[in-house]
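The data layer described in this paper is built around a simple, fixed record for each protein. Such a record has a labelled line for the sequence and another for the backbone structure tokens. For reference, a complete record is included directly beneath this paragraph.
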Amino acid sequence: MKEYEIDGWLRLSYPEHYEYNEEEDHVSFYSVEEDAQGTLQMSIYEAEEAQAPEDAALQELNTFLGEFPIDIKVAPSVTDQSGGMTTAYASGIEDDMYLDVWSLTDGKRLLFLTYVADKKTDEKLEIEAIVDSIEWT
């Protein structure tokens, strides 16, 4: 596994066969293997006022899902509360693309992640491992 870190924010691990691309407002992680299916995109925000982490995580997912015509397959719900981080998750289909979204927060810092793929494959397990590896620094 390789490591990616943003000083003062977060650290995560990602597979050796993945690369990342940093843009002004997000970072994308993607497999370079021939059968790669999708891209994980991560955006980072800081709230002006602290919120209850569970509320902040769910609000972010609901806002995103309400902006697009997504056929929701897994409704937004909190999936983990550990390590000072609350994680919420939802998934659906938009334009025949599989979409998974996560919101991770401590109530002040917020990470919003989307994974979009042509089809469901085992690649999603690698994406979930990346998300599960995220920790605040």
